[in-house]
Amino acid sequence: MDPENNVQAEDRPAEKEVETKPVVEVVSTPAPKKGLVDRVLPWVIVAIVFFLVGALLTWFVVYQPKAQEFASAQAEMTASAVTAAEKAATLQTSLDAANADLITANENLANAQATIEAQTTLLAKTELLKVIYKFQSDVNGARASLSKLDTASSRQALSFVAADLTELEKAGLDPDSLSGFKTKIEEAQANLETAPDQSLADLETIYSNLLLLINNLK
Known about the structure:
The chain is an all-alpha fold and 218 residues long. It contains five helices and no strands. Helix 2 packs antiparallel against helix 5, helix 3 (151-170) packs antiparallel against helix 4 and helix 4 runs antiparallel to helix 5.
């Protein structure tokens, strides 16, 4: 048997088998069409990105400088408030000191006014006593003249006594305190030549009344 024939015989059935296999045709399926959500989603993402970028730009360009300005203004306001409070405290201290000085000045003024009033009263009283003592001295002079029966000197002394009474009336002394003096002086003048003893008695009464007046004024 020829080996080549055997080989060919063996190869042929295989060839037939290959030829008899059906050819499988590969058909590619078309990609499914994208839905509305799939088409819109990228734009939504882009819009969100742009929004975030815009928000960041707004933050850095607009809001952050305004926030810094606001913080700076708030710091200035705080510093101004502290300064104003310090000035107010200083002003209050000065005002309290001024009020204390004013109270002291008012007290000193009141004391000075009281002293002036007291000195004025004392001066007026001294002037009044000066006139009264002159009155008393002139009455004593008239008494001495009458005791010597010196009519001319007694008349002159009585004129001085009458003038002293007028000065006392001008000094503002209470009229009741001078009540009776004028009548006694006029009686002493009238009785000087006819009844010198009566004139002397009138002068004694005037002198006693003057002592009583002086004691009441002291």
